[in-house]
Amino acid sequence: MGNKTYAERPTDAASGSDAPDIPGQIVLVFQGGGALGAYQAGVYQALHDGKVEPHWVIGTSIGAINGAIIAGNRPENRMARLTQFWNGVARHGVESAANWLPGLANWLRDFTTFTQGVPSFFTPQLQSWAGIQARVRSDQAAFYSTGPLRETLSSLVDFEYLNQKTTRLTVGTVNVRSGRMRYFTNRDALLDVEHVMASAAFPPGFPAVQLEGESYWDGGIYSNTPLEAVLDDRPRRDSVIFSVQLWPSSGPEPESILQVMSRQRDIQYSSRAESHLDRQKQIHRLRHVIRELGQHLPKEILNDPEVRDLLGWGCGTTMQVLELDAPAFDNDDLNRDIDFSSAGIERRWLAGYEDTVRLLKRAPWRETLDPMEGISVFRMASAESPQ
To answer: Cα separation of 384 and 234, whole Å?
Structure first.
């Protein structure tokens, strides 16, 4: 691709006008998914071109990396930093194999990543391949070293700016010993490169990261869709949530063992996003019911401290979830999340951009909401998806 960047594309429908009037806080929710995260970069570019900047970014794994680059830079620098990251991890020239090795291009691409890693992201730890039962330190108990990612993030993320809390960042991790999910956010404490590294520490490929004397892994192995952290956040605020799904929760019935393996990964990494939403809809409806009941109680009862405590569970906030579903492409295989080919990255970036431009044109946040419902969901299928 030479000197071309992924950000060099038309901005026809997303720019050139005032920022849209979006009510409440704007939240980006990014799943984990390796190379599939290029779609998230395209989503952000369309929002940026449309003058829609998030108040809060929450992500896991590659979503945490994209989120840190966004929240950890001033708005005018974000696109340049995102582009620098994705240009840095892109593999060039792999696509040419398709011309002389029909059907084997994906195999060659995957083999190259498995054996060589991605230079600015991860590199093989040869001693780990020699014996998987050898007892080593936790930072060595992995097939790859993520030292290059630490250097990359340190150069692309301004952690001093991040910790000024201009934009909130939350990253999802899981404690290795307790197996419990933990979210770290710059609202509550200072974040550094290790917090982002921990959220991207997917085992056994990548080693655990030490935080506060404990080892942490990629939160995606517990919950790859950090949407519930937004919906459970307190204090509650009206929000428009751009939830970017890299793994489809629904799909066709597989017809081969390879398709079974691929579908299994989709279900695993979509992380029950639909069931989370169903549960949260019930909870938010109950909160609205409690609030409505409180308006019908006589004043003498409302003054009772116990009644006030109970009514504190009620609220009138609304959460509008705008779901963007990344497409599956015809040449995708089981290992599509390590497709760091420049062509694959560019195609996913462009799909994220175009899908978000369509979403901004549609402007579903303008729709009237049922006053008794706390959560509304609008799903935007990718234009690249099979009809």
So the answer is: 37
